[in-house]
Amino acid sequence: MRAQMKGNWMNSGRSWMKRTWAEVSMERLEHNYHALRNLTPYGTKFLGLVKADAYGHGAVPVAMKLEELGADYLGVACLDEAVELREAGIEMPILILGCTSSIYAVELVKYDITQACYDLEYAKELSAIVSKTGSELKVHIQCDTGMTRLGFLCHEDTMEKSAQEIYEAVNLPGLVAEGIFTHFSDSDGSEEYTMMQFGRFLDIIDRVKALGYEFAIRHCANSAATLLYPATYLDMVRPGIVLYGHLPDAAMDPDLCDLVPVLELKSRVATVRDVPADTPVSYGRTHTLARDSRLAVIPVGYGDGYCRGFSNHLSILVNGRKAPITGRVCMDMCMVDVTDIPDVKEGDVVVLYGNGQPVEEGAEVMKTISYELLCVLAKRIHRIYL
Ligand SMILES: *Cc1c(COP(=O)(O)O)cnc(C)c1O
To answer: Which residue, among 332, 284, 273, 264, has the nearest Cα to 304 in the 3D structure?
Structure first.
């Protein structure tokens, strides 16, 4: 990995500087971290989500920064993501929120990783393997209060049964049940549903407590709940997208917290050309020039995670002005109309996502959320850490 990085830097002549890159601002990440920490009372723990390569920002550098800033926990989706962080030297606690086959129980222990435990059968499998080796595995009990994805089912009519099962799970040999958590499915939408989920979560915690077990870390607040519902903070918050400076839903009030986008996606004009009226542009001839035009070729395409759906529907900032994408976005290139923008020349830096051209605008075109556009940024795009 190190040799490969060195190779890129030394042999390429830094050719990425001529193509498309992502600038990731560690200062902005730090700003967002402090803005979020300032929302929570002193003593509330902070788990930073770094799954999916830190929402496309690069998991190792982001995790290193969060460790340096004093975050309490990191959250990832799977074992590979956790091991990547450990091998990079990250020492702080890491929680895997998704499924890890129990055949990897020994690896979980070896790398000192905390695993979400989502049913009794799974708890027994982990316990059987871990207790045989005489070691201990940290787990957080996951409760399904209405997301309907993973966890002990905590509906009103399954609450007592789940309390019994959780109590049995936390007492299994080899398992150390440090925490308990649930996940909100609509905290950026319905307050009523979120509070119903929160009520179920408090109920299951109380019932397990009545049976004789108390958890050190109870957590449920994702980004939206961290912004909107302080009552849900309990012992730890678990924000993801807001750490990277984006709201979970673009319609939410931006004044809830002072957040700044961490990533800017930039490229350079590869070449500029003058093309006569009535000429079709790009695959499928979806756009025909209405007038004599000047087009700039931008070296970014869907092979970089820059969506083909942007074709004819989004702009790129060229010299601070919006240049419409003309015709289809190709795998490695797209064309923008710069007829009305003076003095555009090869090498000019352009902004694909960033100040003046927010990723949210692209998300709206794609009828999706900022999360997805950030996560799909390809490996080919070099991340530069500022
Ligand atoms: C992804 C995830 C989060 C963070 O969600 P955001 O909306 O990005 O804050 C929190 N908890 C769980 C279980 C998740 O999977």
So the answer is: 332
pLDDT per residue as tens digits for the range 259-287: 999 999 999 999 999 999 999 999 999 99
| DSSP of 133-189 | TT--EEEEEEEESSS-SSSEE-STTTHHHHHHHHHHHHTSTTEEEEEEEE--SSTTT
* Any atom of ligand 1 within 6 Å of the Cβ of 327: no
Of 49, 94, 145, 370, the residue with max ligand 1 atoms within 8 A of its CB, to mutate for a pocket test, comes to 49
| Separation between Cα atoms, residue 295 and residue 161, nearest integer Å | 66
Which residue's CA is minimally distant from atom 15 of ligand 1?
Answer: 97
Cβ 240 under 6 angstroms from ligand 1 = yes
Per-residue pLDDT tens for 168-183? 999 999 999 999 999 9
Q: Is 283 a catalytic residue?
A: yes
Statement: the pTM of the whole predicted model exceeds 0.90: yes
Catalytic residue among 45, 51, 65, 138: 51
Given 132, 161, 283, 345, which residue is catalytic?
A: 283
Q: What is the pLDDT of residues 122-138, one digit of tens each?
A: 999 999 999 999 999 99
Long-range contacts (CB closer than 8 Å, 24 or more residues apart) made by 248-255: 248/187, 248/188, 248/222, 248/223, 248/224, 248/369, 249/188, 249/189, 249/224, 249/369, 250/360, 250/363, 250/364, 250/369, 250/370, 252/188, 252/224, 252/227
